[in-house]
Amino acid sequence: MKPQLIERSGVCSMIGEAIRNNQRIHTLFGKRLNGWRFNLFVKQCARYLRRKNGVLISEEGHGLAVIVPISNENDQRRRTDWWPSLFVFSLKRIGAMRRFRNKTQQLLPTEPHLFFMLLLTDEQRNGQSQVIQLRDELFKMSEIMQLPVYAQTSSQQTRGMFERFGFETYGKIAIPNKEDFMYFMVRKIVQ
Question: What is the CA angle 67-64-127, rounded to 5?
Fold first, then answer.
């Protein structure tokens, strides 16, 4: 099933549904999926993505990838506001939150690139094939635009998947109050 481009008007509800179905995110938000933290995160995602025509999702909703060409430093700063927030919401101390954000921003690329974000995969069904379809579409776009692809993950399983897709880990940051790391990965342009 070929992935399709979703209209920007549907971004907010799509992201909210993706997050509600992602058990890993539930561990951060607990059962308060209608609370202010959850709603703020969804709004941050939607606000950013409404400015871009770069949301790619499988038709049955098993996989969600965000493909965003970054053209300048201001765009880059705006993108950092929402994805690390997923982890920041689980932190108790303001100082830890700021240090994590600052380290994250230092590792993010400043060159034009594509960003591969996987928010939802349904491992019970055909989530793996959906991820492969999303990967193929993204890599095709990377070749056409001649842009590298960047990704971030805190999951060892997802990191292994990205490595099988040709990504390399170029940095990692310890996530405060957790035993996990945030891994920063890149797939360079294939000549």
Answer: 135
